[in-house]
Design a protein that fits this description.
105 residues, mainly beta, seven-stranded antiparallel beta sheet
Length: 105
């Protein structure tokens, strides 16, 4: 999906790691939510309550999911899944533009 229609956008950004990771929420008419954001190169760790689908639009990063021992690399055009109630680490290699979808449960 190249663009979204009939959505509400939350003006206030989420800002993490001294501004190196930012995102904004997009709310759809059915109540589902996505975030659109940018990550600058660096290493980060996040936790999540809801399961996530991370779509990498541009850039390159490596991901280490909770319970796994090997980093996996992703670049623009690829996605990865994060289980609910877990943590994950990121090694962002280049500026990453991403879209995160939250699975409704």
């Amino acid at each position: 999906m190249e663009h979204f229609t009939d959505v509400a956008i939350v003006k206030q950004a989420y800002i993490y790691f001294e501004g190196k990771v930012t995102s904004r929420s997009v709310i759809f008419t059915d109540g589902s939510k996505k975030t659109l954001g940018i990550m600058l190169p660096g290493e980060y760790e996040f936790g999540t309550d809801a399961a996530e689908i991370m779509e990498i639009l541009v850039g390159e990063l490596s991901v280490l999911l909770l319970g796994e021992s090997e980093w996996k690399s992703y670049r623009g055009g690829e996605i990865f899944h994060v289980p609910a109630e877990s943590r994950f680490k990121l090694q962002v290699k280049t500026v990453v533009d991403y879209c995160c979808s939250y699975e409704q449960g």
